[in-house]
Structures are given as C-alpha cells and as structure tokens.
Specification:
There is one protein chain. With 239 residues, the chain is α/β, with parallel strands linked by helices. It has two domains: 163 residues, 3-Layer(aba) Sandwich (Rossmann fold); 67 residues, no CATH class. 38% of the residues lie in helices and 27% in strands. It is built from eleven helices and ten strands. The strands form two sheets. It has a six-stranded mixed beta sheet with strand order 6-7-8-3-9-10, with helices on both faces. It has a four-stranded antiparallel beta sheet with strand order 2-1-4-5, covered by helices on one side. Helix 3 runs parallel beside helix 7.
Length: 239
C-alpha cells in the first residue's frame, strides 16, 4: 500500500438487502495517478464508486481524502472535498440546457470563484458542447451526453474524478475519444479513478490496476503486470 495516498479506501464493505456487494475492499490512489478498477459486470465496481461518493452507505471500513475520514459525509460535502463522479448512465438534467447543466456543476463553493474560467476550459475540451450550449441536454446524442457528464464533473474543480463505465453505449470511435479525454485530464494534474469493463483499454491507459471479483480485490499491481498475467489474459482479454 502507498503511504502518501490522496484517496485511501480501507476494508470497505457494502451490502444490499443482506447481500454483500463489497467485501473489505482496500485501495490507494496517490495525487496525480490514473488507476483503474476492472472486472466483470456485477463484480462490485459501481458499488465501490457510489460508496466513495457517499451515495451508497458502507456497512464497514473507511474512505479517507487527504487523511480526513469522509465515510459518513453526505454526497455534497464529499464533492466539496474535491471528489467528482462521472456516473454510469450520465445522469444529466435532460430538461435543462447544456450550459445550465455545466453551471450546476460549478455551483460548489470550491468552484464558484473561477466558474467562467472553468466553463471556458470545458468548452475548449469539448467544442461540441460550446456549439450545443443553448440546446436541451436531453436532445444530445449519447456521446455528447457523456461529454456533458464529464464537463459537469470538471466544473466542480475536482482533485479526483471517478469515472464509472464511461465507454458504455458508445461506439468504438467515441470510446477512443473518451479514453483520450480521461488521459488528457490526468496529464493536466487531475487524479483519476477509472472503473471499466473494458479491461484492455483501461490497463493500457493506467499506471496501476485492481481486479474485482464478487466484491473483493483478487489482483493488484502495475498495469503492465496485469496485462501480462495469464489469468487476466484468459478471463478478460480472450487470449
């Protein structure tokens, strides 16, 4: 484990109706890292993200940001601590304009002072959103809605962005674009936790990875080590 963790998860447990979704998951993310959590559908990846974000209560363990225990904080306070989530399914405000969605993301105390500057940064990153800024978000294509979900997260001036299955429902070409955006944000200093079913692309992008199976971490190591692991190659890469 790394001692200088920006985000530290220890023995995190989550249960739904008596069934365990996470069984003592521990991981570390240092400032500036891009790490991935991979595994099959139902492995517990989304439960991990939602629990860190405060959306799903944990039944045991802890989450610490910069050494501060945030396990029991409500989601909005966790956002103020600098953790943003790009949720599976995007979860945009369909009846609001693109720009209003983005401005909501920038309404946190930590983000208000530079809201317009961050908005311009998002528009430079996604020129399509600038073109569509007056359009209702619900009328955007799937790829554009994913851009909006990422842009809204960036508007909160986060230190950590958690991506939950960002490639779901996207074409291969758009998937490549989204992974490129994730890498670009990390190159600009944002720490990234990427949760994905696309094991090959996730490990190619990240420096380290964790493999979840049935709510438990079964493997952890450098992305290179995991890509070369025969069990990973057989189970996830079709080799």
């Amino acid at each position: 484990m790394l001692d200088d963790a920006l985000l530290a998860i220890d023995n995190l447990c989550v249960a739904y109706d008596g069934s365990n979704a996470l069984n003592g998951v521990s991981l570390r993310i240092s400032k500036g890292e891009l790490i991935c959590v991979v595994g099959a559908n139902g492995a517990g990846k989304t439960s991990l993200i939602r629990s860190i974000a405060g959306i799903v209560p944990s039944s045991g363990g802890s989450v610490r940001m910069k050494g501060v225990d945030i396990t029991r904080l409500p989601p909005w306070e966790i956002c103020e601590m600098g953790i943003a989530q790009v949720a599976e399914g995007r979860q945009i405000f369909s009846a609001l304009s693109v720009e209003d969605n983005l401005l909501i993301g920038g309404a946190l105390k930590r983000a208000r002072d530079d809201q317009m500057g961050t908005l311009e940064f998002v528009y430079q990153l996604f020129e399509r959103l600038r073109e569509r800024r007056r359009q209702l978000a619900g009328t955007l294509s799937g790829g554009e809605q994913q851009m909006l979900a990422i842009g809204r997260a960036i508007m909160s001036k986060p230190e950590v962005v958690m991506f939950d299955e960002p490639s779901i429902g996207l074409s291969p070409a758009l998937t490549d674009v989204m992974f490129g955006v994730v890498k670009s944000l990390n190159d600009q200093g944002i720490t990234v936790l990427l949760v994905e079913q696309n094991v090959a692309k996730s490990l190619a992008l990240s420096s380290r990875g964790y493999v979840l199976e049935n709510g438990s971490v079964v493997l952890h190591g450098s992305s290179k080590e995991l890509l070369e692991n025969p069990d990973i190659q057989r189970a996830y890469l079709g080799m």
